[in-house]
Design brief:
Helix content: 40-55%
Distance between the termini: 10 Å
Strand content: 15-25%
Structural class: alpha/beta
Strand order of the largest sheet: 2-7-1-8-9-10
Largest sheet: 6 strands, parallel
CATH architecture of the largest domain: 3-Layer(aba) Sandwich
CATH class of the largest domain: Alpha Beta
Shape: globular
Number of helices: 16
CATH topology of the largest domain: Rossmann fold
Oligomer: single chain
Mean pLDDT: 90
Low-confidence stretches: none
Length: 353
């Protein structure tokens, strides 16, 4: 059985989306794929309790016949150091090994997803590198976006892995913005190759996968929907409409998928948002605009939602807005598979494990 430990060093790198896409591709081509996330980051779900939503996604999409606690036995919550300082570290290691053995019994390839941060659980010798060594896995690094710093982090990771004789099969440069594609494909990839890191693919940023949607914004705000447009549209940027109309048009036109936050009394800003085809317009302070403005938004299929909070409070709420793939997001799930087919020589990657 092959074992691949997929790591990143930051949140929102697209690691889970990549694993989901690769798993689907492998299954579609006859491989039996197992999944394990030894250390997860929980969220509270009304229906599921305290869970790691990424693990729930993998369980549902891959139809894994295991419980969530079997797929991710350790959840990192606030003050986790105090919690696990009271636990026997050897028992934790044995628990991870036992669960891994159970989950991998009928698999050709076992994909292990690392924690969000490489340093998590270092106090107990259970960080990503420790667990990769424990499970005798080969490591694949995922970089979310590219910069000099992200390339250096891949090489820093490689140096540590080399010291522990843990094989690094290579890296994937993920979510690369258009203006950085050429540099990533040539300069950065060449630099990594010179330092012994195989670059398996440079994946351009796909806002349909990585960005939040209007639906997710509505779920977070729980406001009154005045116009329900296309709630599956993505949101690339959030603007606060507090400027003059001419300036607003200038900024809003920089992106076609904006969320515009403004007061309901700012008919000029709302009209500018409609004119530039915003994804959604958020009206603060429970101030409803004229019917004429709402009719224009409806004609362009733009969602308008009204909330009781002021602008500052609304922006603070939207700091928690992220583009998480859910088990019901069949379109986004299909995009992850297409992403791997289009940009990764998956057979060669599989052979290298």
């Amino acid at each position: 059985m092959k074992s691949l430990f997929v790591v990143s060093w930051e949140g929102f790198s697209g690691k889970t989306a990549f694993i989901l896409g690769l798993s689907q591709v492998l299954i579609e081509n006859g491989f039996k794929v197992g999944y394990f996330r030894p250390i997860g980051r929980p969220q509270t779900s009304v229906t599921e309790g305290t869970i790691d939503p990424d693990v729930l996604l993998m369980k549902e999409v891959l139809k894994l016949p295991f419980t969530l606690s079997e797929l991710t036995p350790i959840l990192i919550e606030p003050n986790y150091l105090s919690v696990y300082a009271k636990r026997d570290v050897e028992k934790l290691k044995n628990m991870i090994l036992t669960q891994y053995g159970k989950l991998s019994q009928s698999s050709d390839i076992m994909i292990v997803e690392g924690g969000v941060s490489p340093e998590t659980m270092t106090a107990f010798k259970l960080n990503n590198i420790n667990i990769a060594e424990l499970l005798n896995s080969k490591v694949l690094a995922i970089s979310g976006g590219v910069s000099d710093s992200s390339i250096e982090k891949i090489l820093f990771y490689k140096n540590i892995l080399d010291m522990k004789d843990i094989p690094l099969v290579g890296a994937v440069l993920n979510q690369v913005p258009p203006h950085m594609m050429e540099k990533a494909e040539y300069e950065y990839s060449e630099l990594l190759n010179k330092n012994g890191v195989k670059v398996w693919g440079v994946i351009p940023r796909n806002y349909e996968i990585s960005s939040p949607t209007v639906r997710e914004l509505l779920e977070l705000l729980e406001g009154e929907i005045l116009v329900e447009g296309d709630i599956n549209r993505v949101i690339e940027k959030i603007f606060i409409g507090a400027m003059q109309t001419e300036s607003s048009l200038k900024y809003f036109r920089r992106s076609g998928n904006n969320a515009i936050i403004t007061g309901g009394d700012r008919a000029d800003i709302i009209s500018a948002a409609v004119e530039t085809n915003a994804s959604v317009i958020v009206l603060t302070g429970n101030m409803k605009p004229s019917e004429q403005v709402l009719v224009k938004a409806e004609e362009k299929n733009i969602t308008v939602v009204m909330v009781p909070q002021d602008t500052y409070s609304t922006v603070k709420i939207l700091e928690g807005l992220t583009g998480k793939i859910k088990p019901s997001d069949t379109y986004r799930i299909s995009l992850t598979k297409k992403m791997v087919y289009d940009h990764i020589p998956w057979r060669e990657l599989c052979d290298s494990i």
